[in-house]
Amino acid sequence: MLLLLVLASLSVTQTLAYSARRDAQIITKFKHELELNHAKIARELVHRANWASVATISTNQVVKDYPMVNVIAIDDNNANNISTGVVRYLLTDLDFTGTDWHSNNKVTFLFTDEQTLNCRNSNKDPMEPTCARVMISGQVKKLDEYSPSYNSTLDIFIVRHPAAANWILTHHFYLCELDIQNIYVLDFYGGPHQVKPSDYYAINI
Ligand SMILES: *[C@@H]1O[C@H](CO)[C@@H](O)[C@H](O)[C@H]1NC(C)=O
Ligand SMILES: *[C@@H]1O[C@H](CO)[C@@H](O)[C@H](O)[C@H]1NC(C)=O
Predict the structure, then answer these.
(1) How close is the Cα of 79 to the center of ligand 1, in Å?
(2) At 141, which helix (H) or strand (E)?
């Protein structure tokens, strides 16, 4: 009997505070979140981007131990120009990133929808969570230059980044892949979503 009374008074309070508009907003937000495929969003951002901002822990004497960021050209295509999700990039030990990973092999790649101006074109500030971004953390995996597939993999990269052909000639650039440990996707209000690397790679785009 007491419980019934408590429940009855609760429902009165709720009725008083009820707002149809607020309810509709909550339902819309919930539906929107259900529709977002975070793994697919991550794959699309990576595939569309020609480059990523890449953070390392600095070994540079002037900013030692500070996070350092760099612009790194990337590509995730296979020989048939189809997205694989594998993040490939060239590094040189003459540059910040190339030096840092030898000391501490922990890197984070940032991709944002603003790189292709999608946010600006839909009037979204790049810092709004609705301007999707993905932060992929992992290890630098240097590919074996003497493996039979190295040159053809490098050729695929050069299709998308023709300027890289000159970098390789003048400085010692080497091809790497990202060994992904964690993927955070921010694509709506309510905080980041963790995407498993296996779910990320399983997407077809
Ligand atoms: C690869 O595919 C992209 C679209 O994803 C296209 O813009 C580009 O021209 C293609 N490149 C080649 C070499 O076919
Ligand atoms: C790859 O290309 C380099 C430079 O052109 C060449 O020296 C090397 O022999 C090639 N490697 C293979 C396995 O074909």
Answers:
(1) 11
(2) strand 133-142
